[in-house]
From TrEMBL:
<dbReference type="GO" id="GO:0046914">
    <property type="term" value="F:transition metal ion binding"/>
</dbReference>
<keyword id="KW-0408">Iron</keyword>
<dbReference type="InterPro" id="IPR038157">
    <property type="entry name" value="FeoA_core_dom"/>
</dbReference>
<feature type="domain" description="Ferrous iron transporter FeoA-like">
    <location>
        <begin position="8"/>
        <end position="68"/>
    </location>
</feature>
<dbReference type="Pfam" id="PF04023">
    <property type="entry name" value="FeoA"/>
</dbReference>
<dbReference type="InterPro" id="IPR053184">
    <property type="entry name" value="FeoA-like"/>
</dbReference>
<protein>
    <submittedName>
        <fullName>Ferrous iron transport protein A</fullName>
    </submittedName>
</protein>
<dbReference type="InterPro" id="IPR008988">
    <property type="entry name" value="Transcriptional_repressor_C"/>
</dbReference>
<dbReference type="InterPro" id="IPR007167">
    <property type="entry name" value="Fe-transptr_FeoA-like"/>
</dbReference>
Amino acid sequence: MADSLANKKLGTYTVKEIKSNCNKLYNLGIVPGARITVISNDRGPVIVRVGNCKLAMGRGMARSIIVE
């Protein structure tokens, strides 16, 4: 079931869709079909791993990433 990244528990997911036109996400390698691992999703920013990089993003940006 597809849901926004901001609502997901720790684990690895496949990016299904990006709901906003955010070039920053594309430049970071967060594109449809990419594998993304949620490292921390408590309070504050969502921390993910994409490839060999760890990224922290605000919840607004995380809500625009739809994963399955």
